[in-house]
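Risk register update: the risk of archive-format incompatibility is retired. Evidence:
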Amino acid sequence: MVGIDWFLGLSAIMFTIGIIGVLIRRNAIVIFMCVELMLNAVNLSLVSFASHHGNIDGQILVFFALAVAAAEAVVGLAIIIAIFRNNLSVDVSKINLLRW
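Archived output:
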């Protein structure tokens, strides 16, 4: 049986990859995917702790977090598509929404 430390290690690696992706990349879609990766890393650690302690509350919380993440993904992709239609680029360094 795999211990909780392996799941927490995987969660830490996933979260670190997500942070590095957000800080380094300029493509809005890649940044969005890295934020989703960080969210899934937190969900993995929450499920790991809930399973380790034999409590179902953490897994129920992850279910609601995934439902909110699905709605967030729809809104985020809609915003990215709207920005792409206006600027023909998803490079975040070229996006200036405060300009008239």
